Amino acid sequence: MLRFYRKLTAEQSKLTGRDEEQFREFLERTRALGNAQVAANAKALLKQEPLGEWLDACWEGEHADFFARAFLQPYAESLGRDCPWCHKRPQVSVLRDAAQGSRRTLVCGLCTREWNYPRVQCWHCQNQDFDSLPVFTSEEDSRLRVEACDSCQSYLISVDMTKDGLAVPVVDELAAVSLNVWAQEQGYARRLPNLLGV
Are residues 96 and 73 in the same domain? Predict the structure, then answer.
């Protein structure tokens, strides 16, 4: 998955806008990067008409389509606005050193901007009851955690940069496949799958 993501980011670096023609070219190039399912999905999407309107709807809404998010992400990042300007859901939670302990930020699932968020609060339902906001730490990698909410049954993967200041939250979250599987087996749900659909 990470090899595919590296190839995908190379394709994303070539993008300069969000028009339909660039999107069609992106779909053609992306077909060759992934497995047969990625290729089939790209081929089916190329037949979508009107594709430009579909892409605009993805930009305006909460559409979680892989190709739309992969294509729109560089454009959203290039706008250089403060989050949460695009009002999309968070992809990953991050803990960083602060004056007295650590502070929590959320990383947007589209523009990848970060914004401060209370440590003891569910991002989805705003629940602030400490006892219903369990945190589960990975035994394999202590930087990775599941921040769950028993009130709405949602969760986010969290990357604890107080334990590794060189972590790259968006990439480390993609690599946390086993932690995502574990959280879902416990009955928690992601409200926005990551770019690779996990």
Answer: no
C-beta pairs of 98-107 under 8 Å, 24+ apart in sequence:
102/160, 102/162, 104/158, 106/156, 107/169, 107/170
What tokens were used for 13?
């670096």
Rounded Cα distance between 131 and 169, Å, is 26
Residues 55 and 98 in one domain: no
Residue type, 196: L
Q: State how far Cα 41 lies from the chain centre.
A: 20
Looking from the CA of 143 toward its CB, the CA atoms found within 13 Å total 18
**Domain contains 193:** no
- What pTM value is reported for the model? 0.81
Are 73 and 97 within one domain?
Answer: no
Residues 129 and 181 in one domain: yes
pLDDT digits (tens, 9 = 90+) for 91-139: 999 999 987 778 999 998 888 888 999 999 999 999 999 999 999 998 8
Residue 164 lies inside a defined structural domain of this protein: yes
What single-letter DSSP state applies at residue 61? S
Q: What span, in angstroms and rounded, lies between the C-alpha atoms of 14 and 10? A: 7
Domain holding 33, by residue range, is 2-78
